[in-house]
């Protein structure tokens, strides 16, 4: 349950990121005097409300082993719990998962289209470099958003389908494979983040150099053409690289 709540907050955070990006592009001048505190309050309320609602739903869906209608199917009852195999609760959770997925895709698409539309409207007033950097940032945000949806959202929906229709062939095997993919989507998301966003790559590079047993990072600076320059002292000699 904790894993699913965490994943839901991850997706919600990506949606609000695109939303804030649109608000900044479209209404940046009007929001100059607005205190950043309200942005934090907004995120806390949204994440808290969605997490509480999802947790309550999971508690209604969960069923003690002793109350499961088919106890003969359970060989070992230690450290396990069941879900309602049928009924209104099971149907509600099943449809909620797909409605939730639809809303996420809808709002991501909506704010992405609005962002590109607003950039198109303001291209006459923006410097070319600023416009290009805004488009690149928005594109990278959308790409990084797709990774959790593919490696986390789709497997999770398949799991919900198999739990809802637990009597279909190979439901347990398919769910097990999807659980493995779902629990490891963070690796793909992390690699995607490092590839797309240069500041994260530079931070990882600094950490790596500090951990090297034979080298000590002395400085990090910007060279010509925004080239990252590292200066490293190895066994008494100073070497630099880009």
UniProtKB/TrEMBL annotation:
Which parts pass through the membrane?
6-25, 37-61, 93-116, 137-161, 173-197
Q: Which Pfam families match?
A: 7TM_GPCR_Srh (PF10318)
User: SUPFAM superfamilies, per this entry?
Assistant: Family A G protein-coupled receptor-like
Protein keywords:
Membrane, Transmembrane, Transmembrane helix
Protein name in the entry: G_PROTEIN_RECEP_F1_2 domain-containing protein
Q: What is the lineage of its organism?
A: Eukaryota, Metazoa, Ecdysozoa, Nematoda, Chromadorea
């Amino acid at each position: 349950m904790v894993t699913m709540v965490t994943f839901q907050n991850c997706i919600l955070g990506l949606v609000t990121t695109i939303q804030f990006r649109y608000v900044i592009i479209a209404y940046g001048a009007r929001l100059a005097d607005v205190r950043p505190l309200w942005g934090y309050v907004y995120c806390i309320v949204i994440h808290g409300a969605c997490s509480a609602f999802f947790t309550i739903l999971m508690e209604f869906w969960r069923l003690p082993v002793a109350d499961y209608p088919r106890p003969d199917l359970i060989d070992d009852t230690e450290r396990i719990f069941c879900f309602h195999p049928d009924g209104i609760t099971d149907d509600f959770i099943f449809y909620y998962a797909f409605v939730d997925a639809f809303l996420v895709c809808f709002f991501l698409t909506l704010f992405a289209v609005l962002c590109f539309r607003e950039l198109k409207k303001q291209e006459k007033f923006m410097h070319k470099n600023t416009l290009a950097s805004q488009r690149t940032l928005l594109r990278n945000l959308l790409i990084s958003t797709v990774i959790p949806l593919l490696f986390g959202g789709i497997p999770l929906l398949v799991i919900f389908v198999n739990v809802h229709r637990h009597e279909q062939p190979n439901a347990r095997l398919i769910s097990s494979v999807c659980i493995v993919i779902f629990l490891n989507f963070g690796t793909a998301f992390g690699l995607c983040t490092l590839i797309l966003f240069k500041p994260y790559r530079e931070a990882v590079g600094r950490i790596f150099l500090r951990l090297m047993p034979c080298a000590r990072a002395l400085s990090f600076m910007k060279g010509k053409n925004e080239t990252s320059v590292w200066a490293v002292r190895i066994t008494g000699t100073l070497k630099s690289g880009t």
